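Narrative of activities, Objective 1.

The group set out to show that a structural description can be obtained from nothing but a protein's sequence at a throughput compatible with the screening campaign. Below is one input-output pair from the validation batch, recorded exactly as produced.
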Amino acid sequence: MNPMPDQAHERPLVVTLCTGNAARSVMSGAMLHSAPVRIVTAGTHVVEGQPMSRRTRDALASVGFGADGHRSHQLSDGDVEAADLILAMAGEHVAYIRRRHPQAASKTASIKRLCRDLPATSLPLVERLRLLDLAAVPVEGWEDIEDPAGGEDEAYRSCAKELADLCVELVPRLS
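Output recorded for this entry:
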């Protein structure tokens, strides 16, 4: 059953963010649909409206997910303002938000950092993010999900597998 419109807005909005909104953010967005959040996928440097590549579609299918109808989307000021969490796929995306949207630095983190640091407690997600003081946390190299763009099918499948494992860990933390 679909939530009523007012119930949907009670769920936190998570923006998954990568570079082209063609692989990593699309994959993680599809994988987080079971979490009690609303999802928007976006990129920092996007050709707007492009369909998902065959490699991304096949990689998602290889781990049991799909994102039918996806079209690439450039991150907008509205996305940043509306987001409760901007879930970055790499440190460069966290840096982009800090540079272009400094007011959103406190709600932006890499998926790997949140899997490590976000507590799964009964506090609302927004409050748990505030307690992490994300704007002050240095971005580190271990936080990156490698971009499969330009790679072979195996690079996309490997990325999908890594993200699937991370999303399994993150979903209960988003509750």
